[in-house]
Design goal:
single chain, about 90 residues, about 85% helix, elongated
């Protein structure tokens, strides 16, 4: 799906730098979540003396998920507000 969306962004009036920074900002929370989930899986499956109890990882994952949800909601609100201003 990225090839099609990248092509469509290329034919729009979106400038390169705002697109790059928006993409970086948008992908960062998901990337952090994937890395952290992998770290949890590694810690829980390997015998490691430094591993925390499972509920510590579950709590951090829940907090991270909540943070991502809040960021997504705020971003959606900002985008809708900008679109409403453009329509007026």
């Amino acid at each position: 799906p990225f090839a099609l969306s990248n092509y469509l962004y290329g034919v729009t009036s979106i400038r390169f730098w705002p697109y790059l920074f928006g993409t970086m900002l948008g992908f960062t929370p998901g990337t952090i979540a994937y890395v952290f989930t992998g770290e949890i899986g590694k810690s829980l499956t390997l015998d490691s003396a430094t591993a925390e109890p499972w509920y510590v990882y579950a709590g951090v994952l829940a907090l991270l998920s909540g943070f991502i949800k809040i960021v997504a909601d705020v971003s959606t609100g900002i985008i809708e507000k900008v679109q409403e201003e453009d329509d007026v």
